[in-house]
Amino acid sequence: MGLSALTPPKSQDAVHETLLEFHDNRLLIDLCGEFDRNLAQIEHKLDVQIVRRGNMLSVMGTGSTRGRAASVLQDLYSKLEAGREIEPGDIDGMIRMGETPAEKGLPGDQMEMFRGGDVEIKTRKKLIEPRTEAQKAYVQNLFKNEMAFGIGPAGTGKTYLAVAVGVNMLINGHVDKIILSRPAVEAGERLGFLPGTQDEKVDPYMQPLYDALNDFIPAKQLAKMKEEKTIEIAPLAFMRGRTLSRAFVVLDEAQNSTTMQMKMFLTRLGEGSRMVITGDRSQVDLPRGVPSGLRDAERILAGVPNIAFNYFTSKDVVRHPLVAAIIEAYESDEAQ
Description:
Blueprint: E1 3-6, E2 17-22, H1 25-32, H2 37-46, E3 49-53, E4 56-60, H3 63-81, H4 88-97, E5 114-115, E6 118-119, E7 121-122, E8 127-128, H5 133-144, E9 147-151, H6 158-171, E10 177-182, H7 198-216, H8 219-227, E11 231-235, E12 247-251, H9 259-266, E13 274-279, H10 293-301, E14 307-311, H11 321-335
Parallel strand pairs: 9-13, 9-14, 10-11, 10-12, 12-13
Antiparallel strand pairs: 1-2, 2-4, 3-4, 5-6, 7-8
C-alpha cells in the first residue's frame, strides 16, 4: 500500500506513540495538506498530536484515539495512492464513521464500483464516494433494488447519491432517461404570489436537483439532455397519467407528498425502471392534519420484495460538522 506502521518496542509503550512510514513523499505532502491543515483537523477531532519526521508521522495520544488517528491517516493515504483527492468532508466522515468492510453481492459491471471496501460512483464529471456505512449500504441498494427509500435528516446525501447513481446508470446504458421530481409545497410562501410564469415559479423548488446534476454532468451536455428529454425535472403533480419505462426516477422531499400522491407516483413504475424516494420526516410542510405519504408508504410497503428502506441519522451528515450538531440538538429537544 506504500506505507507501513512501525510498532514501538514495549519499553516505549509509555510514551503512547504510533509511527507511520509513508514511502511516497509527494503523496505525504498531499496527505498533510496545505500548512498541515489535514493533520490539524485530525489532531483537533481526536485529541492527538501528529509530528512529521521525514517520511514518517508520529501519532501521540491515548490508545483508542491514537489508533483511530493512525487508521484515518492510512485510509487517506490509500485514497491518494488510488489517484483520488482528499476532499474537506473526507476526514470528518472517516473520523465519525470508521472503516467499512468490503461491499459484496453486486451483479455484473457494478462490482467494480465496490473495490476494496470503497463504494465508487462514476459520473461524467467526477468520481463520487459515499463516506459513511449508511451511505454505502444505500448506494448498494440503489443498484440492487427496483425501488429504494432514503429516509433521514438534511445533509446526509440522500438525493445527491441517488442522482449520482442515476447518472451512472444512464451513461452505462442501464436506463434511457432520468426523471427527477419533488412536490411543489410552500414552506411559508405562497406559490401564486411569486413573480413569473409557471416554469419560473416551479424552478426554485427544483433547484436542489439542478445543483446535483450540475455536479455530475458538464453544462453543455446537461442542457442538451434536458432539451432532448433524456433528463426531466418536474413537479410531482406532472407525473400523473404517465408510465415511466427504462427510467431512473427520483422523488425528492417525499415527506411533503400526500398518501394519494405517493400512491400515484409509486404506481408510475414501468419495465426496466428504478425508483428512489427520499425524504426527511422531521420537515413536513403539509397543512396541519394532512398525513404524509412517506410515513404511510413506510408502513404499507414494509416487507414488500425488491423495495429497500434505508435510514440515516445525524452521524451521516456530510455537509458540515455543525449541521450534524444542529440536528442532534433539535432531536434532543424533541425527545424531552
